[in-house]
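User: Fold this; tokens only.

Assistant: Input:
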Amino acid sequence: MSQPVAPVAPAAEGTELIAIGRIVKTFGVKGAVRVQSLSSVPGRFQGLKQVTLEAPSGRTVTTTVTQVREDRDSYVVAFEAFTTPEEAVAFRGGLVKIPRDQAPPLPAGEYYEFDLIGLAVSDETGRRLGTLEEILETASNHVFVVRGEGREVLIPATRGVVASVDVEARTMTVRLVEGLLDAQESDRHAL
């Protein structure tokens, strides 16, 4: 499965945007920012020319990427829109977005996380478990956080558990491992 875990938002021209990075903090004195990748696409940031930045306040700006440098587990990115750290700081915690049609196609059976967020999740008997709201990355596999009906269910994102995904219909069907819901319910009541 490929990332990003991020909301999808329409662009001003009606183009759907996807988040590929999160602005962590400013970097240096010329307005560059440190960006955490939300994408597992190799070279995703190196080829960027133009992006839309979305601040936590909801303010958006479309800007040209002037420089990208990989730095440890993140990227240092300079945008034409920022020339000082003071200009960039308003976007700390914000998202770096590109048009959805710029996302490369994936092999059959693989999905971008932004396509999975918001899916209605049911078990194989048709019982609705909730909505997939978040995807956690663990050492062994991703974990789907499904919330609904006053509860949160953690579902391993493995082929043995995920029975089917229909992105068009916005649904996911899962095979519940014996006792999975019972164990999570008892843990919730113990707290």
